[in-house]
C-alpha cells in the first residue's frame, strides 16, 4: 500500500508562533478535525521534544511517493499511455503543429505538446532564468536505533520558515529534514568532497 494512516504533531518554535498556531487549532477544532492542543510540558514529557506548544492531529497520512508514482504509471499504461524508460533526450524541436523529441538512441517521438516534470532540472531547458534554486536537506539514521516509541506512526513539523520535519520509517530509522540553502546540492556535494577527499 502506498499510503498509511498516521498522526501529526505541529510544533510552535517561538511564543509568537504558539499564539498563531493556537488560533489554527481553534479553527480545526471548530470543524471537528480531530485535533488536541498540547502544552510545552506535555510535549516534552510525552515525546521528549522542546517547543512552545503544538497541535496533535489524528487526521494525517504518509505517502510512499515511489510506489504512488509507479501505481499511477501502471494505471495509465492500461489506458493507453506509452512509457519510454531509461532514454535520454538529445534535442527538442518546437514546431507550429507540435513538437519532435530526438533521443540519444536515434529514435524520434512526435507529439502535440510536451510537459516538463523533471523538477529542478527543468531550469536547464530554458534560456531565460525562470527560478532561483534552493536546496533542502534530509538525513536518515541507521536501522533499529533507539527512538521514543511515541514518535512511531507520527509526522512531526514545526513552524519555522523553512520548517523542520521528522518521522520514522518502516524499517526503524529516523528521518529528519528541512533547512533551505541558496547553494544547490551539486555545489554542496562538491564542497563536501573537497573537505573529505577519501569519501
How do the strands and helices of this protein lay out in sequence?
Blueprint lengths: L2 E9 L3 H16 L4 E4 L1 H8 L6 E10 L1 H13 L11 E7 L2 E6 L4 E4 L23 E6 L13 E5 L5 E5 L5 E8 L3 H11 L4
Parallel strand pairs: 1-8
Antiparallel strand pairs: 1-3, 2-3, 4-5, 5-6, 7-10, 8-9, 9-10
Question: What does this 3D model show about the protein?
Answer:
The chain is of the alpha+beta class and 199 residues long. It has 2 domains: 110 residues, 2-Layer Sandwich (D-Amino Acid Oxidase, Chain A, domain 2), CATH 3.30.9.10; 60 residues, FAD/NAD(P)-binding domain, CATH 3.50.50. The two termini are 36 Å apart. A 7-stranded mixed sheet has the order 2-3-1-8-9-10-7. The longest helix has 16 residues. Strand 9 and strand 10 form a beta hairpin. It is built from 4 helices and 10 strands; from the N terminus they run E-H-E-H-E-H-E-E-E-E-E-E-E-H.
Output the radius of gyration: 22 Å
> What is the CATH first-level class name of the largest domain?
Alpha Beta
How many DSSP E strands?
10
* Shape label: elongated
User: What is the CATH topology of the largest domain?
Assistant: D-Amino Acid Oxidase, Chain A, domain 2
How many domain units?
2
How far apart, in Å, are the first and last alpha carbons? 36 Å
Strand order of the largest sheet: 2-3-1-8-9-10-7
Low-confidence stretches: 189-199
> Which CATH architecture of the largest domain would you pick?
2-Layer Sandwich
Derived from helix and strand composition plus strand pairing, the structural class reads alpha+beta
Amino acid at each position: 500500500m502506498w499510503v498509511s494512516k498516521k498522526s501529526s504533531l505541529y510544533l510552535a518554535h517561538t511564543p509568537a508562533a504558539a499564539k498563531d498556531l493556537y488560533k489554527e487549532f481553534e479553527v480545526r477544532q471548530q470543524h471537528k478535525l480531530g485535533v488536541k492542543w498540547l502544552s510545552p510540558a506535555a510535549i516534552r514529557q510525552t515525546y521528549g521534544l522542546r517547543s512552545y506548544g503544538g497541535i496533535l492531529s489524528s487526521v494525517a497520512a504518509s505517502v510512499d511517493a515511489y510506489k504512488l508514482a509507479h501505481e499511477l504509471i501502471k494505471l495509465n499504461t492500461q489506458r493507453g499511455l506509452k512509457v519510454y524508460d531509461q532514454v535520454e533526450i538529445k534535442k527538442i524541436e518546437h514546431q507550429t503543429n507540435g513538437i519532435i523529441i530526438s533521443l540519444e538512441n536515434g529514435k524520434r517521438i512526435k507529439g502535440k505538446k510536451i510537459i516538463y516534470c523533471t523538477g529542478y532540472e527543468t531550469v536547464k531547458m530554458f534560456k531565460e532564468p525562470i527560478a532561483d534554486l534552493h536546496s533542502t536537506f534530509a538525513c536518515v539514521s541507521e536501522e533499529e536505533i533507539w527512538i521514543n516509541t511515541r514518535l512511531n506512526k507520527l509526522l512531526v513539523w514545526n513552524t519555522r520558515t523553512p520548517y523542520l520535519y521528522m518521522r520514522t520509517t518502516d524499517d526503524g530509522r529516523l528521518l529528519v529534514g528541512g533547512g533551505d540553502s541558496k547553494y544547490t546540492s551539486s555545489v554542496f556535494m562538491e564542497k563536501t568532497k573537497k573537505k573529505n577527499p577519501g569519501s
